[in-house]
């Protein structure tokens, strides 16, 4: 074999060839779950400097490093107080099983943070098990009930999602069970489309009135978030603030989805790393940085990622894919079952298909029953604690008594690309590519 | 004009916030009148009790938004998103309504004596809408459930990508949207249309209407249908 000098094409590599073959066989584009899989400039390309002669570190096990954050105090009379700056991103009942939603609520509540609904409305499971629950207000308005908004702790108006800025949603028929269909007022088993645009407003001026309407409905009690998929974060953040948002949620292209075209996931939107500085610049330019909070999502995996996002100016981060992995997604114990589905542990992304052996991205009663919501919640709480401890470890090393005191000055970049995107110097230099242009 | 024991809120004097706050605290059976609305946005949003509200004039966006239980009568015209996502009760506009009237509404009865703009009944989810005049383009887009009665004409692409909403049209549609077809008017349709017209205070005869609904060819995604999208 070694003498045959086989050379794989960089242009037509095996995955590309397989994609062409698959398209020719099926006549339909590839739909899958999760976020961008291509290599992108990311938080891994940044490093913390740590304390030195001119900076004093905090003692790791004696001196406090706080992690709490308040969201929504700009206009809401009842802002949200979270113990940790890591929230659970919006994921729908429908995309996820009821047990998975309950597990997310249990895990988040155990560590004092929030969960978020998704398309299709609020289920009793997630409300009942989530101490702090953010209600997503989506273009489809499936299951949209003013009583649910009143029962929520905050409202997140969704304009876009990092995996697919400019795209609507889809829930394939195999997941549209009687309960899911009933909540969404649709026939059972159809491929359910979710609109990309809101049905009753267009543009930032209308959004101002829409936000005012939601405030009127809730008597100005609840924080209003505006979620954007990262594409033009500078302008979108400015416009969201002008429209009256209390919190801007910014989702980069590594952010996951339950079901989207692969071509959309991989080719639309910008990386999380590239999206944060323009959004922070917009907030600072308007004089509302830290008054209007910025929540960043899309590829958060470790406490280092959390700390880096905060250092770049975010007030909190949000996790989706990582939370599902914590619940048991892609677990190696399920390898035999992944093989039967034509996948493998570590690769499984058919979250749209409803056949998830881990019982997370499914509506099948037998598969769903595999996920114990109490055990899932325990695992998620563990993971969130680790993220928090890791972020605190880094913050203390940088001499910060609160993780939100981390700042760009604590960071350097490993590559020219990440230095330009994150707007921090290339390590060992004072060079920030593009600065001053 | 006035009703015995009627509460009056003058929007020349009070703010929309004060009005809505008072309406949210109101009790079943109360009568309210709003004077000088002056095209204000978000008037009477979030009512959730069996109250009767009359608005003396024109209103802006999202009037009676997310309405539940009570009755709102607008003695004028309404802006964008009238009664959006209403759940129950009744909203009646004596004049015209702008675009997205009754958007995503889940229940109740929305009556518009005049004409509406584009996207009337967009993504409606169970509401009944009766329009005395015409509706604009893309009305009943992705409409899921409920009935839309149009006593005048409809603009382009009526019922595009419609699900299970039934449309009753007296006049002409400039065009039908993808997957929207004319369907036979059976006895049960004539009967439910008669009820809707009566509930809206209309005098048209059900026999003057035609019914439209979903051909259900787009319920499952097939690339062979790509020309429909």
Automatic annotation (TrEMBL), chain A:
Residues covered by region (Disordered): 109-128
Keyword Thylakoid set for record: no
GO MF entries: glutamate synthase activity
Keyword annotations: Oxidoreductase
Entry superkingdom: Bacteria
Glutamate synthase domain sequence ranges: 73-328, 357-400
One Pfam family recorded for the sequence: Glu_synthase
Entry-linked InterPro entries: Aldolase_TIM (IPR013785), GltB (IPR024188), GltB_archl_type (IPR043578), Glu_synthdom (IPR002932)
GO BP terms in the entry: glutamate biosynthetic process
Family listed: Belongs to the glutamate synthase family.
Protein name from the UniProt record: FMN-binding glutamate synthase family protein
Organism: Amnibacterium flavum
UniProtKB/TrEMBL annotation, chain B:
A GO MF label: oxidoreductase activity
Gene3D superfamilies, alphabetized: Glutamate synthase, alpha subunit, C-terminal domain (2.160.20.60)
Protein name per UniProt: Protein glxC
Organism the protein comes from: Amnibacterium flavum
Source taxonomy: Bacteria, Bacillati, Actinomycetota, Actinomycetes, Micrococcales
